[in-house]
Amino acid sequence: MAMELNKILEDYIDENTGQPVMPSLSGENAFLNCVVKPIYETIKKEVESSKNGTAPHSAWRNYDDLNEYFWTKRCFAKLKWPIDVGSNFFVISSGRKHVGKTGFVEQRSFWNLLRSFDRLWVMLILFLQFAIIVAWERKEYPWQALEDREVQVRVLTLFFTWSGLRLLQSLLDAGMQYSLVSRETMWLGVRMLLKSAVAAGWIIVFGVFYGRIWSQKNSDGRWSSEANRRIVNFLEVALVFVLPELLALAFFIIPWIRNFLENRNWRIFYLLSWWFQSRSFVGRGLREGLVDNIKYTLFWVVVLATKFAFSYFLQIKPMIKPSRQLLDLRDVTYEWHEFSKAATVGLLAHLGEIRNIQQLTLRFQFFASAIQFNLMPEEQLLNARGTLKSKFKDAIHRLKLRYGLGRPYKKLESNQVEANKFALIWNEIITTFREEDIISDRELELLELPQNSWNVRVIRWPCFLLCNELLLALSQAKELVDAPDKWLWYKICKNEYRRCAVIEAYDSVKHLLLETIKINTEEHSIITVLFQEIDHSLQIEKFTKTFNMTALPHFHTKLIKLVELLNKPKKDLNQVVNTLQALYEIAVRDFFKDKRSTEQLREDGLAPHDPAAMAGLLFQNAVELPDASNETFYRQVRRLHTILTSRDSMQNIPKNLEARRRIAFFSNSLFMNMPHAPQVEKMMAFSVLTPYYNEEVLYSREQLRTENEDGISIWYYLQTIYNDEWKNFIERMRREGMVKEDELWTTRMRDLRLWASYRGQTLARTVRGMMYYYRALKMLAFLDSASEVDIREGSRELGSMRRDGGSDSFKSEGSPSFNSLSRNSSSVNLLFKGHEYGTALMKYSYVVACQIYGTQKAKKDPHAEEILYLMKTNEALRVAYVDEVNTGRDEKEYYSVLVKYDQQLDKEVEIYRIKLPGPLKLGEGKPENQNHALIFTRGDAVQTIDMNQDNYFEEALKMRNLLEEYRRYYGIRKPTILGVREHIFTGSVSSLAWFMSAQEMSFVTLGQRVLANPLKVRMHYGHPDVFDRFWFLTRGGISKASRVINISEDIFAGFNCTLRGGNVTHQEYIQVGKGRDVGFNQVSMFEAKVASGNGEQHKGFAENYRLYARSHFVKAIELGLILTVYASHSAIAKDTFVYIAMTIFSWFLVVSWIMAPFVFNPSGFDWLKTVYDFDDFMNWIWYKGGVFAKAEQSWERWWCEEQEHLRTTGLWGKLLEIVLDLRFFFFQYGIVYQLGIADNSTSIAVYLLSWIYVIVAFAISWVIAYARDKYAAREHIYYRLVQFLIITLGIVVIVALLEFTSFRFMDIFTSLLAFIPTGWGMLLIAQVLRPFLQSTPLWGAVVSMARLYDIMFGVIVMAPVAFLSWMPGFQSMQTRILFNEAFSRGLRIFQILTGKNLRLMCDLR
């Protein structure tokens, strides 16, 4: 096919016809019908034969087998071109002469634990043997023991163990991979047999040579030269044995040799490697460079050396002495029966250097330089990139930037373009915070970096940086009253923010006074002259000699009063005049050191020329305040008031923890190592792909208002949990025109739904986050092309307009909530020249794979309308779905369709429609959904984003830096997957959610960091990793989709990448948000991937029992039973302190297993709820249901589902299950000899006779069950009579035993400890034997007995829950423990749990 295509493209002439070469296949959909469809049908039939994944993996071919087949030589010989549909490739696995497995075969067996980790087991077993041999000599250090020749010879026994393990490995390989052997792969079977034979031969060879050593030594009576020669002979044989391992080690140390051998298809190389591995297309030439190998080796040398040293000195060596003492015991009488197992990398990556607002304050003045260096493109010659000189220059630059070394970062003043770019970016970040309602309007003013106005001569830092600085400068001025100007100014300028605060306050006060006083008035002239004198004294450095520093606090007090008067809604002009008069009096009477008379003041222009004016108020007719609509003026007044009055540190600004975390991470990342950003036009294009099925898009009105069984609605829950964000939302709505909160449920309903949806795990939240890429690229494209004049003038205009209209004044026409959803337009877009939109669309697209969107549209599903709304408000959003078209009776055609919303046509339009060979879903749903939509993505890279993820605008700014990682070498290869860290945004909801966040942090961030560097073995965990799109398109896609085998498609994508020569990295300077379910059930099931709201889950007792009965409760009861027996029958346990010291942690485990599902369950200890839960549990237990009953309705159905794994368990697995169940019989054996009736006998007959009790107990239960079924319904009296007779008989038997045998009354309870576990063991064995017992009358008794055991287990578990529910105050304590993180944020969780009652009380009032 490839050759034919090449000839067509090269315009080759057919030798036979003399015409240009034509394709072998032609016609409509020829390639689809003649190539794709036959292969598709084969895959479909294989999937059908897998019995929904329950058939053994070896019995059917999956995607990997078919992919690997196309890289074998027999593919060309069998399939041919055009494809021969009669080839045995198209015969399914259940037929004859089919193509068998071509890749890895997974046999379901516990032996996989040994086979998959064979190197680990070999290493650990050999070390254990070596350590025991050496430690047995009881020397202080192991090398001292190795000085003895006998110890040296004993160490040689390691080769026996090693060869035995090789034999076991070869047998396991044959047992697990026999399905690969077919007529076409006979040599594979030959190799399996030869490997087993050779391994067995090595055992014999080592035995012979080792025996010769000891025979010679024994005959000579010492270690003679001949005996030593035989040791050398053994070592020569051992050298041959380990030669393959030595070659592998050499190839590992010098990796390019093995890469060369594996990447060549020379037959000689194949013959040499045939013994060690099968010929495969994947997994060849994967060895890393020498430096990476050294780092990898050193890591494991340190880890293993530490582990082995710990094991030897603290685990093995201390056990030698007691072991020898046990072996030295002689004549011991036994009472028996009568037959015989990430921080250093983070530190080097400069993670966490900025963790809070205090550290942020220290580095904020370097932010502009950091943003310019990292986020702004730098024109650089292509031949200068990546050179040693450029790398060294960058390293020095980053070092100075990170630690503020040298003076390359001169003070940022307001006329610098760099500062204006920084202000645009920073303010846009803060604006997105306000749009997301994580900061308030007041916090927006405190955090924003205002553009220059009022002729302020310095950069106007955010107010939270200038807090308290002016007051500190005033105190310094008071202390240094007589100091010269230079010294005072030097002390002030030691703090950059204090210097800027002083200058801005002075310039702002000057502008404020001159603007509030009418021009061309005498008062305006006086104020102008006063400031001229101050400016002159500062210029000649005689300010402290001219003016009295003690007057400054008086000025400060009056200025505060003035700005407070101007900030009031209703402004009292008389009070303003009085305050101005007071300021004037302080200036002319107290401020000047040299007192001036009235005449001197008139001559200097500091007093009115008319003497009559001095008698009244000077500013009475000269004040003219700006109109209240002048938002720019009054916003500056508020800023001045903040600078003048802030006394306390603003370390709690912003208040919202999420806002503070995001600012801290973004600021820290600016000082981390990252590639330089190219211009947007030159950056790699990329796409984002999100699979979606039928999850929530937007919360509906009904979903928000519907209450659960505890009276809590989603709206009320989110309103309370995110209390500060709710207040910010209400504030924003009032600013946008809302008068009453009732409007939220009418005219503002869309805004409310969006606000709630952005706090759940919804598609709307994910789309909002991913569209930040589009918004960021538009802004960066503007900054790339804008001139200095554009940036300077534009930023001034933007600052003025933002202050006039607020942060939301630039929304598009239409819905009031348009901007709050789309996030693709902002106030900065007013500065755009037009090309930014096209540039951003060329570089970015977002595809959501809504698999059933077509079906949803056909059914008028609300989800379809909401998805259409997302497309309408996000122009870079595309939706891919599978369209089913009916073509006739019971016939359908399937198409992959890509659609978008056309803003001009005002409707949804199709972009592409591609016909499929059949239904999409043959394997796992999510990876199939991803792979079908991958072809619709564009660009060089694709980022995979799940439905429960979010993104942030400030992080989107760094995306073009991240994509530059593809141009870097990591070792000997460039990356093909860029790993990105995740932040769990649900971690602050509760203590349980925090635990889940920490769990993910440990694995997803810390673990992945170390796996990537230094180990270079990171695969791909979850999302939001970025894939090299073209690389993966040619290698099977980004997701593995085989049924059941590839349930977790993430890790298999990493395997696929690594095996095909890819490289996976992990980057720490960029992050994406991720949500996790925060109920206990999801924490206990770490692999759960369900996208839903992030609320705690209110689970009933029956539900918890179904989830944890076998994984928690039964194990806890079994362990508790063992501890109880140990307490009652062990001589050591007689001492209470000793028993507690030995078993306290085991009892803690028992309590944890039983109580954890209830402790982490809201309302889990409510008394009434506990009572109702027990009734519900008993109803569930006794409800038999019918054929269609579900597990949550019927105990019997649940019990059967719990045994489903046994249906696919092999013979060896079932035998092992039975062997494990025999432990209960041994437990019975140990207890029966403690009964009084045993009369201290140790005869085996005691144990055998004890089975009479078991038989009688089962007979009684069978009789009761029979009587209940026959008489309970109609002849109830007979059923009661049977019960009476059984009870009477039991009493008679007990009395007789007490009278005529050594039976004690306590034996009744002791025997329960023995026979209840025995019955449970018999039940477990009966479950294994279900195929044989289900058709017999015994099965009914088994089911009845199993029901009684679950009732007993339920009562045992319910007892402590009921007791704690009954105890006063325990529920309140549980609520405090469960929501401790929420309490620390000032949240009212108690109102959530009792919210319904509170609202009812409010309604009654």
From TrEMBL:
Keyword Lipoprotein tagged: no
One GO CC annotation: 1,3-beta-D-glucan synthase complex
Reactions it catalyzes: [(1->3)-beta-D-glucosyl](n) + UDP-alpha-D-glucose = [(1->3)-beta-D-glucosyl](n+1) + UDP + H(+)
Chain intervals for the UniProt region annotation (Disordered): 797-824
Pfam families (UniProt xref): CALS1, FKS1_dom1, Glucan_synthase
Family designation: Belongs to the glycosyltransferase 48 family.
Ranges where the 1,3-beta-glucan synthase component FKS1-like domain occurs: 1-84
Transmembrane found in the keyword field: yes
Subcellular location: Cell membrane
This protein's name: 1,3-beta-glucan synthase
EC number: 2.4.1.34
Membrane-spanning parts: 117-136, 193-211, 231-254, 294-314, 1137-1160, 1211-1232, 1244-1265, 1277-1298, 1305-1328, 1348-1367
GO biological process terms on file: (1->3)-beta-D-glucan biosynthetic process; cell wall organization; regulation of cell shape
Major localization listed first in the record, in broad terms: membrane
Cross-referenced SMART domains: FKS1_dom1
Membrane topology category: Multi-pass membrane protein
Gene Ontology terms for molecular function: 1,3-beta-D-glucan synthase activity
InterPro entries: CALS1_helical, FKS1-like_dom1, Glyco_trans_48_dom
Keywords tagged on the record: Cell membrane, Cell shape, Cell wall biogenesis/degradation, Glycosyltransferase, Membrane, Transferase, Transmembrane, Transmembrane helix
